[in-house]
Fold:
Amino acid sequence: MVRSGGLAGRRVRASVDTDTDPDGDWYAGQLAALDLGALAAEAPTEASPDRYQYVLSVHADDGANHRLELGEANVPDALRPLVTQLESRARAH
Structure:
């Protein structure tokens, strides 16, 4: 995940390898519960001034790749816990 924008315009990044990370099972469960293809197709990409923008990239073990670009106000409820956890991870590093 890359988060950019906001008032300061600071860019933060976080990544997780679900096979090796101690929290990998939680992330894998969150991802398994999502229809990433549908979310990517439906995701509005318009930017809003002084709001965060997110780019989420998922590389699945089966070779599928998904990229979601979302404005802060457009993060679906189903995706919010994952985004929140990744933001916490980014701030910790």
